[in-house]
Amino acid sequence: MGAAVLVGTRKGLFVLTSDETRREWAVEGPHLTGWEVFHAMRDPRTGSLHAATNNWVYGATAHRSADLGETWDRSEGIGLPEDSGLSWEKSWHVEPGHADEPEVLWLGGTPGALFRSGDGGSTWEPVQSVIEHPTREQWNPGAGGLCCHSIQVDPSDPQRLYIAISAAGAFRSDDGGETWEPKNSGVAADFFPDNPFPEVGQCVHKLLLHAQRPERLWQQNHCGVYRSDDRGDSWERLEGNGLPSGFGFPIALDPHDPDAAYVVPEEGAENRVTPNGRLGIYRTRDGGASWELLTDGLPQQAWASVMREGMSFDGLDPAGVYLGTQSGSVFVSPDGGSSWVEAARFLPTILSVEACEWS
Amino acid sequence: MALVLIPSLLAREAGGQGRFELEAATVREALLQLPVRDLVFDERGELRPLVNVYVNRAQVDGLDGALQADDEIRLVAAIAGG
């Protein structure tokens, strides 16, 4: 059994492979040339690869491969209903459904839309309740558009789903996507000085659920890092205790430790590079009470940027951490962040990294 | 029988086929037979704005003009992107 990381870039998909030591890496690809791969993952239930793909001429779609990238099929006919007045613009994130529903997948994107596939990603149906959400008029697009970039499925309950949209906030469904309730209590929207804690409109950059403790959520937001221990009903802001900044895009969770999270702070919204002239990854092992800077093997002179899908974990023991920069480097830590190797460099602009098993 | 030529990215999406000989009365009818029609047209059935259509090497604005036998339709992506 080998390790792999799927690296989505502005110019196709790359696959990095290694053995379980995760110290030496081979680069394969690019697959899906001509497509911007905003996110790609290997579905652990079926082994298929899925990619959220975009082209500035030919639009937004999704691709899948049942043979580890040898051949790809495109999903046809993804679109929003005409009476919505909305058009499908960008595919951002593709997420496996619940383990009990191996043919179900979810696809999120711009303009604040969610699709469900019940046939393994061949066809996709828009989720009407998101299109018609009663708060939609209060949503505003961030710099990347009104993107639905985070989709999480509660492993303990296939009816419970979470999505996050920038800048609409986080939403939870307890009925399989029939209805969605805003879950932004305590999350700041400092860009609304007249109402910094609105019901919706928060700029979530990435939202994740911890599978071992599914009532626990984390989010990296435009306005801070947050943790919720009650399925999003309330959020605690976690910065000011070792983090140089609350601004950043990705967040990653150690699958073996619900108290451990990793972020890559940037100086701020007005200067979106890693602070202090180096690539700093920060780790908490106490639920966000304190954060430590990880440096071993990372460049100590860098002005880097990491996109919202640019960091992930594998499922090995010890857990591996993966990071992809906009400047085209992939960094891998095979020991939970304590040491790092540069697995690849000079790739096109990296939009996403997802670890998976490879065999 | 019209000949339709498509760019390389579309040809990859069509299983490697870049030339199609099609029976069609209009340009639109020909393009709607392509296996990549969802990439040429958007969800409303409108030609995507950065897809340019040439018939016998002359760019056409509309897609409903009648085709003659042996007409050559060529799809060209507009200069865009980076």
Query: Number of helix segments of chain B?
Result: 3
CATH homologous superfamily grouping of chain A: YVTN repeat-like/Quinoprotein amine dehydrogenase
What number is the mean pLDDT of chain A?
96
- The CATH architecture of chain A: 7 Propeller
Order of helices and strands of chain B: EHEHHEEE
Q: Bin the helical content of chain A.
A: under 10%
Oligomer: heterodimer
Q: Report the top-level CATH class of chain A.
A: Mainly Beta
- The parts of chain A where pLDDT drops under 50 for at least 5 residues are none
End-to-end Cα distance of chain A: 6 Å
Order of helices and strands of chain A: EEEEEEEEEEEHEEEEEEEEEEEEEEEEE
What does this structure look like?
Chain A is mainly beta and 359 residues long. Chain A has one helix spanning 128-131; strands at 2-9, 12-18, 26-31, 36-42, 49-55, 59-65, 73-74, 90-96, 105-110, 113-117, 125-126, 147-153, 161-166, 169-173, 181-182, 204-209, 217-221, 224-228, 236-237, 248-253, 261-265, 281-284, 292-294, 311-313, 321-324, 330-333, 341-344, 350-358. Chain A has one domain: YVTN repeat-like/Quinoprotein amine dehydrogenase (Methylamine Dehydrogenase, Chain H). Chain A is built from one helix and 28 strands. The longest helix of chain A is centred in the middle third of the chain and has 4 residues, at 128-131. Chain B is of the alpha+beta class. Chain B has a single domain, classed as Roll (Ubiquitin-like (UB roll)). In chain B, 18% of the residues lie in helices and 26% in strands. In chain B, strands 2-1-5-3-4 form a five-stranded mixed beta sheet. In chain B, strand 3 and strand 4 form a beta hairpin. Chain B is globular, with a radius of gyration of 12 Å. The mean pLDDT of chain B is 94. Classes of the chains: A mainly beta (359), B alpha+beta (82). The interface between A and B is medium-sized, with 17 and 19 residues.
